Amino acid sequence: MKLIRLLPLSLLSLLLMAAMPATLHAQQDDKAWFDYMDTYGGPRVGVMGSTLTKLDGDPLIGPAIGGFIEVHITPRIAISFDMNYTHEGTNNAKCSFRSLDGKGPSDISMHMLNSDYRLRYYLTRQFSVATGFHITRILRAYGETDGKSVKIHSDMRRGNLAIPLAAEYNFGPWAVEASYYFTLRKWAGTGDVKSIMGDAVTNKATVTLAYKFQIF
Hints:
15% of the residues lie in helices and 56% in strands. By secondary structure, the chain is mainly beta. Strand 5 and strand 6 (148-151) form a beta hairpin. The protein starts with a helix and ends with a strand.
């Protein structure tokens, strides 16, 4: 849990430090900003670290793979849409599933399809911060104990909502971004999952690398 909390804070600090020299140069650069309706897109890949609160489990490190499109509406402000796949959950959680003989600890694994709608503000041409809405949908989810697994997505909320806070640093066509997500709804729905997960929500952060190319 501590790893997930410290990861976005440390990365955001590094990105802020990296952006400071660029800020000074941008103040003297006539081409520091973007034109109206400049549009960029590309793939974005990285890793996500996640846990489920209240279950006292270890972080699950999984992939974050997708793509994005970004449209600039002012020289410093852009709106963006991301769609990606992530693998989220927790390992060695202090919980057990009755259908797996009630033994523990257990791993909870969730395969997600996500869409992000963000408003991005460029402090310099290289450095930006963003927030918006992160909408998730469970493709499938499993509980696993001692090598035995059970499907649990039918007893969970199929969708959820989070608020992302992100910082991105661009170098050439590449961009590295660190994001932390504040999940707004608990996952448990009905049945065995509700009694096990209770009010647990996802605590997660991502670090990604994007390749940006201009479309318009």
